User: Which sequence fits this backbone?
């Protein structure tokens, strides 16, 4: 129970910090504009997102530290993969899921690669959806080669 309370405290703190920054963020490498919203923060700081970062060797505090830096992280991130929504292939509103990776240095000096998931929908464009922390270069490695596989599945190969 204490952990859940602490995560909620960190989530509220993050919301207060970023609420005036909600809106469109432009990725400098692709020119893609993506919306950062309260829903984005809820997804980025969900138990599932935090657990993925923990599985990759990062703490809850480290996850929230880099979530607070989502704007500069997304602005400088590199697109590493774009594919159809594999979890909801029959949803006609979802155009693609894009994965961006951005290197980051935590306050404690630890390096991380932040995987940023962006969902593209017909109804409202690109939205920042979630983040996951990886040891440096692991996020890019996770998706290396998958771009070709996703492209082939789009073409029916």
Assistant:
């Amino acid at each position: 129970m204490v952990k859940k309370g602490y995560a909620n405290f960190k989530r509220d703190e993050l919301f207060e910090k970023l609420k005036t920054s909600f809106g469109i963020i432009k990725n400098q490498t692709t020119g893609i504009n993506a919306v950062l919203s309260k829903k984005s923060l809820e997804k980025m700081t969900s138990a599932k997102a935090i657990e993925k970062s923990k599985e990759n060797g990062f703490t809850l505090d480290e996850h929230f530290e880099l979530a607070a830096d989502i704007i500069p992280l997304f602005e400088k991130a590199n697109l590493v993969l774009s594919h159809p929504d594999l979890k909801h292939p029959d949803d006609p509103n979802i155009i693609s899921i894009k994965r961006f990776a951005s290197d980051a240095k935590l306050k404690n000096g630890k390096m991380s690669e932040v995987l940023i998931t962006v969902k593209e929908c017909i109804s409202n464009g690109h939205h920042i959806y979630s983040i996951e922390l990886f040891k440096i270069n692991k996020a890019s490695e996770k998706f290396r080669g998958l771009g070709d596989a996703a492209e082939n599945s789009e073409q029916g190969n």
